[in-house]
Amino acid sequence: MSYGNYGYIQAKASITGAITKKLAARFSFSGTQRDGLVDNVRTLKKTNDINNLGFRGQLLYKVSDKTTIILSGDNSRQRPDGYAQVVAGVVKTNRAGYRQFDSIIAALNYQLPSRNAFDRKIDHDVPWNSGNDLGGASLNIDSKIGPGILTSTTAWRYWNWDPSNDRDFTGLQALAKSQNPAKHKNWSQEVRYAGEFSNRLSGVIGLFFIDQEVKITGTEESGKDQWRFSQSSTSSNWKTPGLLDGYGISTRASIKSQSAAAFANIDWEVIDRLHVLPGIRFNYDKKVVSYKRTTYGGLQTDNAALLAIKKGVYSDQAYDADADETNFTYQLTVAYKANKRINAFASYSTSFKPVGVNVAGLPTLANGNADTSLSVIKPEDVKSIQVGVKTTPIDNFTLNFTFHNTDIKDYQTNVQSPQLGVNRGYIANAEKVNVKGFELDANIKASKYFTFYGAAAYTDAKYVKFTNAPLPLEETGSTKNGQQLAFKDVSGGRLPGISKWAGSLGGEFTTPTAFLGKAGKFFTAVEGFYRSSFSSSASPSAYLNIEGYTLVNGRIGFRATNGLSAFIWARNLLNKDYFEQLLVAGGNAGQYAGVLGDQRTYGVTLRYSF
Question: Model-level pTM?
Answer without folding.
Answer: 0.90
